[in-house]
TrEMBL record:
<keyword id="KW-0560">Oxidoreductase</keyword>
<keyword id="KW-0285">Flavoprotein</keyword>
<dbReference type="Pfam" id="PF07992">
    <property type="entry name" value="Pyr_redox_2"/>
</dbReference>
<dbReference type="InterPro" id="IPR050097">
    <property type="entry name" value="Ferredoxin-NADP_redctase_2"/>
</dbReference>
<dbReference type="GO" id="GO:0004791">
    <property type="term" value="F:thioredoxin-disulfide reductase (NADPH) activity"/>
</dbReference>
<dbReference type="InterPro" id="IPR036188">
    <property type="entry name" value="FAD/NAD-bd_sf"/>
</dbReference>
<dbReference type="InterPro" id="IPR023753">
    <property type="entry name" value="FAD/NAD-binding_dom"/>
</dbReference>
<protein>
    <submittedName>
        <fullName>Thioredoxin reductase</fullName>
    </submittedName>
</protein>
<feature type="domain" description="FAD/NAD(P)-binding">
    <location>
        <begin position="6"/>
        <end position="285"/>
    </location>
</feature>
Length: 309
């Protein structure tokens, strides 16, 4: 017999666990399928989450798993490889298990594709960073570098100047002529130094970033480097279900209503599955909203069915 759940939550990060907590407390038979690949795994701590500021991401998830277990929610470490919609949803796991669900929450997040500069991937989440709201306080007043990946990187260089007045903007593969006059005026007003030339690698001493090295051999002393990863939304399951996507400067994401309901009836999405800028606190909130909407949706569906009997 194929196991049947009221809801299957695909993704066990902040959004998925938050949805599962609400569903479990509402007495819905719920399964969380977690591939164990959270976006913030490289970070030692997460910031900006009231009452959880500075908490290690792994600890946050471990506490979340303990909480959902109190309400009978099941969690399996596996990956969903296929989803088919019929009268309900058939969810196929990589481990060979197939389960059915009346409703789905897609919380598969996204992956960050880092610039192909030697040393960046190895130090990402330590002294190579991408979000000043996540890490700016911890590295405040240090010498910052910002690696341009497009002319839009000007925005990142300007934002990080809130946390340090010693910022150098490395144009890397971006030509200075690609920056607008307004960009250059703002960079100057913020005290950001513009450095032309391609970045060849990082200077690391005693397992600490100490500089940024250009292709011409010159090195600039820096202890923090901000980069702009290319976000890769994990929308494969949504696409196979026929969900409508909309293009953004940061990739294609599902069209959702305020509760996270996609254009596929019975399928909600939350967290970085719906947008690039969803922080942990936003993801948890999105999971809560989706789950509470599902509780109401299932109740009304069952009540309407009962009135037809």
């Amino acid at each position: 017999m194929t196991e049947k759940y009221a809801v299957v939550v695909i993704g066990g990060g902040a959004a998925g666990l938050s949805a599962a907590l609400v569903l479990g407390r509402a007495r819905h038979h719920t399964l969380v399928v977690d591939a164990g690949e959270p976006r913030n795994a490289p970070a030692a701590h997460m910031q900006g989450y009231l009452s959880r500021d500075g908490m290690p991401p792994a600890e946050f998830l471990a506490v979340g798993r303990e909480e959902i277990a109190r309400y009978g929610v099941e969690l399996v470490r596996d990956r969903v490889v296929e989803v088919e919609k019929g009268e309900d949803f058939a969810v196929v796991l990589a481990g060979g298990r197939t389960v059915r669900a009346r409703r789905l929450v897609i919380a598969t997040g996204l992956k960050d594709e880092l610039p192909a500069v030697p040393g960046v991937a190895e130090r990402f989440g330590r002294d190579v960073l991408h979000c000043p709201f996540c890490h700016g306080w911890e590295v405040r007043d240090q010498p910052f570098g910002v690696l341009a990946s497009s002319p839009a990187s000007v925005h990142q260089a300007l934002i990080v100047s809130q946390w340090s007045k010693d910022v150098r903007f490395f144009l890397h593969t971006v030509a200075e002529e690609e920056l607008s006059d307004q960009d250059l005026r703002r960079l100057a007003a913020a005290g950001v130094d513009v450095v032309p030339g391609e970045v060849a690698g990082l200077v690391v001493e005693d397992d600490r970033l100490t500089g940024v090295r250009l292709a011409d051999g010159t090195a600039h002393a820096r202890s923090v480097l901000f980069v702009g990863p290319r976000p890769v939304p994990q929308t494969g399951l949504l696409e196979r279900l026929g969900a409508e996507l909309h293009e953004t400067p940061f990739g294609a994401y599902p069209v959702v209503d305020p509760t996270g309901l996609t254009t596929v009836p019975g399928v909600w999405a939350a967290g970085n599955a719906i947008g690039f800028a969803e922080q942990v606190v936003h993801a948890a909130s999105g999971g809560y909203r989706a789950a509470s909407a599902i509780v109401g949706d299932l109740l009304m569906t069952d009540l309407d069915a009962a009135t037809q009997e």
